[in-house]
Amino acid sequence: FLFAPAVEVKIEVVIPEKERSKEEMSPNGKASPLVYKVNGTARHYHLEEHPIASNPYHNPKDVVEASVCHVKDLENGQMREVDLGCGKALLIKENGEFHAVGHKCPHYGAPLVKGVLSKGRVRCPWHGACFNIGTGDIEDFPGLDSLPRFQVKIEKEKVYIRASKQALQTQRRTKMMAKCISLSNYNLSSTNVLIIGAGAAGLVCAETLRQEGFSDRIVMCTMDRHLPYDRPKLSKSMDSHPEQISLRPKEFFRSYDVEVLTEMQVAAVDIKNKTAMFKDGFRMEYNKLLIAPGNIPKALSCKGKEVENVFNIRTPEDANRVVKLATSKNVVIVGASFLGMEVAAYLAERAHSVSLVELEEVPFKKFFGERVGRAVMKMFENNKVKFYMQTEVSELREQEGKLKEVVLKSGKVLRADVCVVGVGAVPATGFLKQSGINIDSKGFIVVNKMMQTNIPGIFAAGDAVTFPLALRNNKKVNVPHWQMAHMHGRIAALNMLAHGVELSTVPYLWTAMFGKSIRYAGHGEGFDDVVIQGDLDELKFVAFYTKSDEVVAVASMNYDPIVSKVAEVLAAGRTIRKRDHPWEPSHDAAVFFLSFRTGDMSWLTGKGS
């Protein structure tokens, strides 16, 4: 793995000649039909018809070609951001071959040149999404779109890139998808694939089915009033409106025939008759079913819990309402969870006061460890957030029906105009209790590595499942995070199509507070030691979480792309052991070296940014 710093490159722009830009169409101009069998019946379908051409740029005026470097300017395993005049590309050299793709991660725009290159793919330094350098296709998440891929040629020892101006500007590519060819043959109460839940898992499942050429009916249903949206932003960017955080526009769902039933709650599933019963009495038959209902936030159980202006952040409307009510007012947040801490950080500059109540003595202690938790707590205190630790709420007091005070079990009384509750969540699986689908004692749906439940044709994904995590010797775990939900949806879709693909991703998550991010990869549940490199006081550190000498997770702040590097080591199936390392920082405070004896992965370098 190599950390590739951005390099400025002088370029020579060459306007392509008309002869060079003419499209060479294939004789038939259409993709070959594929066949998918449903209940033994062969169904033929075409991918959305695109001309097959040796030149992918349909409009000659939309094409730019540039000489970007000499062939010897890049060594194997190096990446370089290059400017083509009207946009940038990422040039990569691996195994003697050059590749060019978009230079920004389509998820949140991270510069991929600062990411990690390994075995034919580049991993985003911010949130861990992975892209194939040969095709640009997304291979791990978060995010939905792939990278545009550009043509590379070598002439007289110079490297040229030929690219669409539009692709250089958008820096994203939606993979080709099928459309439903038999929608008119269905009645309203029957679908081939029914998806319960319209979060990341449900949407990625639907998109993957279409990308794989599936052309039967797909119906998604959700209790939400909105089309799928970027749920992590509800606590990180609380004043965002639904249309600003939607994952796909309305036109996308129309174009690819993915039907979304909003404000529809499933009340029961009849596995014998393959039917979902909705709360309003509507029934829908299915052939394949994905259950991805997510979680339900826990409410407070104290006296006065029905008082007005007490919120769980579940929808964009909840988040927007809290921001409006909290401005220049007193806010109490119950629970130092990811949601609670992110809400506290977002409101700190807007509210008159922000108080945070937590049962533990340190925020994130079970997840990040006590030392990291205390460093984060200090950052919050420096931003005028007041903590009340090792206590709980005993009463919510009102005045004229609205929240006035929060009373703690310690006896402390806090002034409060708004209260946000972030004390965890439970899986939204109550409707499955009598279904015959295997649910564990905590309410989680139990699935195998292919996201299959114990019932043939029924799959489950996202926050409401437990699944075998390859990284931890197939231990059954629940990982309620955004990246994992994406991958669950993809694996479920592929196995609906009988591809036999198993889940093998490395969990990757992040949290953002006061303009700083903590990145995390792995699964550190039950860690027994934390090895920290860097400076916690300066909020520039890496924390390695170990269990029985093995590194099981890593977290960092201001040390990109170290978490993505460790994620790649873990994804390769290699074990990092604590006893193999000197764990000594170098003389340069910004750089440290870890001698990872991991097969052919003999070293790993981290650099602060």
From TrEMBL:
Q: Where in the cell is it found?
A: Mitochondrion
Q: Which Gene3D superfamilies match?
A: 3.30.390.30, FAD/NAD(P)-binding domain, Rieske [2Fe-2S] iron-sulphur domain
Q: Which GO terms describe its cellular component?
A: mitochondrion
UniProt KW keywords? 2Fe-2S, Apoptosis, Electron transport, FAD, Flavoprotein, Iron, Iron-sulfur, Metal-binding, Mitochondrion, Oxidoreductase, Transport
Function, as annotated, reads: Induces apoptosis through a caspase dependent pathway. Reduces mitochondrial membrane potential.
Q: What Gene Ontology biological process does one annotation of this record name?
A: execution phase of apoptosis
**What protein name is recorded for this chain?**
Apoptosis-inducing factor 3
Superkingdom as given in the UniProt entry:
Eukaryota
Q: Where is the Rieske domain?
A: 66-161
The cross-references to PANTHER family, in alphabetical order and at most eight, read: APOPTOSIS-INDUCING FACTOR 1, APOPTOSIS-INDUCING FACTOR 3
The residues forming the signal peptide are: none
Q: Which family does it belong to?
A: Belongs to the FAD-dependent oxidoreductase family.
The protein's predominant localisation is mitochondrion
Q: Name one GO molecular function term.
A: metal ion binding
A Pfam family cross-referenced in the UniProt record is Rieske
